[in-house]
Amino acid sequence: MKFAIYGQTSKPIVQNIILRLLAVFNDYESTEIIFESHFYQLLKHTNVLSQDYQTFGQKVDLPSDTDFFISVGGDGTMLRATNFIKNMNIPIVGINAGRLGFLANVQQDDIEKLLPNLFTHSYKLSKRSLLSMQCNPPKNNDFDIQYALNEVTVSRKNTTSMITVDTYLDNEFLASYWADGLIISTPSGSTGYSLSCGGPIIEPETGCFVLTPLAPHNLNVRPLVIRDNLEIKLKVSSREKKFLVSLDTTTKTIANETEIIISKAPFTIDLVEFPTQSFIKTLRNKLLWGEDKRN
Is the separation of the CB atoms in 150 and 128 below 8 Å? Predict the structure, then answer.
């Protein structure tokens, strides 16, 4: 069984997780481990690894015969992990070394208990939709990542003034949002930035997207849930000549005349859920639902 391992830092908590992962994998025969190249160099620099491993990254693609992709970090690391996998249908296991951890839902104390389930196939896959974005003119498409698991956001740049976001669904005009910006969120991203701005929590495998305005000046504007097969087109105008566009963890400055076209990606990402895990349990544990003295 082949495991790809990815992280973004080599801080002590990550080093500890890597050592525990390797200890688990050493208990099983015919286990092959490869590391993302930049992460591998960080670990080699801190002398965490006692032997050499093969790597993947910008110069060497992730092997298609990889059985599981293990992300070590927080939810931001998970978001970047999806862009290594894209349409390869490799399940992702998220080991949480961050704070909240909605996506990276394996806590480090559970590594020895949960990871052996991968070898006995005692898990299920949660299929998550992604957002694909295109810019018109196309010269603005050179983002570090190409797909968003959580959200695409347009927002104001270098100004305290609002921007206007003209929004179209399948080329039918919806509204002009006078606001600091607009979030287009997947169900997976509904517990992220969108939630902080008053958006609803959506069960992860629901076939929809959420449009959540940032500090709207229109008092009657509210977050909107739409089906996920609609094409969303955004046109931004403001006193500044440029605005910001974010795909999950990467942000770029875009000229006002640019059209942003957002649609559902033609593939899904599989997140591993172990028998003791569920979205409902995560809500209770992470958002403290039910933590009431009356209970």
Answer: no
CA proximity to 73, closest of 21, 32, 28, 31: 21
Q: Which two tokens stand for residue 231?
A: 């094409």
Q: How confident is the model over 8-44, as pLDDT tens digits? A: 999 999 999 999 999 999 999 889 999 999 999 999 9
- Largest distance between two CA atoms of the chain: 62
Q: Give Cβ neighbours of residue 295 (< 8 Å, ≥ 6 apart).
A: none
Residue 256 CA to residue 58 CA, distance in Å, equals 31
SS3 92: strand
94 vs 123: CA distance, rounded Å:
13
Specify the pTM. 0.90
β-partners of residue 259 are 136, 235
Distance CA 17, CA 45 (A): 16
- Answer whether 235's CB lies under 8 Å from 164's CB: no
Rounded CA-CA distance 221/79 in Å is 29
Neighbours of 104 (CB within 10 A): 25
Catalytic, 75? Answer yes
Phi-psi region of 81 (alpha: psi -120 to 50; beta: other; left: phi over 0): alpha
Select which of 75, 180, 248, 270 is catalytic: 75
- Asked if residues 150 and 189 have their Cβ atoms less than 8 Å apart, the reply is yes
